[in-house]
Amino acid sequence: MASLYKKPGSKFWYVHFQDKDGAWRHRSTGLLHSDARQTAEARILKANLDAGQLEHASSKHRGGWEFVEEYLANCARNANTRRCYRNRWTWISLFLAHEGLRFPEQVEYAHAHRYIAWRTNWKKKTGKKACRNTAIYEVKTFSQIMEEATRRKLCSANPLVKLKLIKDDPDEKPEITDREFRVILPALDLLPPEKAWMRYSFLISMHTGCRLQDTRQKRLYCDFETDVLTFLEPKGGKKRNFSIPIPPAIRPLLEEFVNRPPVEVAWPFQPSRAWQHFFHSLDLDHLCFHCLRVTFVTRLARKRVPLASAMRLVNHASTTIHRIYQRLGVDDVRDMPVLFPDFTRN
């Protein structure tokens, strides 16, 4: 199994791995251990090396895991979905190497539960661990892979079907209050130039309710003559492309944004983590970027925007999903009209 380590006096991560000939090698990754993004890239490199070792070991025998990459590349149309599957396979392949599972026929029912325990105890550099729900989603992908292995007759049956794993209740993302906006917005103005993308993303999502990925420069098309903002390849792929009127509050921002070279607003490797650190620096750990979508949907409801119009603005296809985002409270229903007369009076 490959491993990462530091050398005294060196600023780079080093990796110890086994090559295709079975010889163990030591090599610099060229990635800085002082940089969070490059550290994450080094860990991905290590995971890929582990997956390669596992694939190499199983390719010597009939019926290994060499089919997985091809299978995952063809099991989804959307590029983001394929990327998600590949990330899950990286973790699954790490577990397979850890357990010494070189062939699908070695996988048993108990491995699903062992995977969840293993995955949720894996500490990140920040000290945080993956939640149970993340591990369950990865086990479902594991089950898909085992189902494909069964179809290819690499094992007699899929032991990971009908697991009935109970998910934890997800934390409800809160609405961002006006007081919190008064803290966040000035802090965004003080960010260094290399973090300019954060200010753009926040303000665009604040006034449109779009998701973080949809605020990327390549995902936006602005027609200032017709006053239309189009989101390209949102969640669901190209078939879910949608357009809305350009919000007047961010029209100057969009004019500035679309005319800047992409390098000036380049995104980091893990934008969600950057937002996590940003909110932590403001003592607002309960918030995340997706709270902007919750806030936008809630304020549309508070302003009595018709349901169909609100769903069209945020590209929701389901009324059930749309209502999940609403955070209306007691104060929002204080002006409830009187429904019945006072029957105690004559």
Overview of the molecule:
This protein is about 45% helix and about 10% strand. With about 350 residues, the protein is mostly helical. Strand 4 and strand 5 (about 230) form a beta hairpin. Helix 3 packs across helix 5. The longest helix is centred in the N-terminal third of the chain and has 24 residues, at about 35-60.
Q: Into which percent range does the helicity of residues fall? A: 40-55%
N-to-C CA distance:
85 Å
Major β-sheet strand ordering: 1-2-3
- How many helices? 12
- What profile does the largest beta sheet have? 3 strands, antiparallel
Task: Give the overall average pLDDT.
Answer: 85
Shape: globular
What proportion strand? 5-15%
Helix-and-strand structural type: mainly alpha
Could you give the count of β-strands?
A: 6
Radius of gyration: 25 Å
SSE order: EEEHHHHHHHEEEHHHHH
Identify low-pLDDT runs: 54-62
- Specify the oligomeric state: single chain
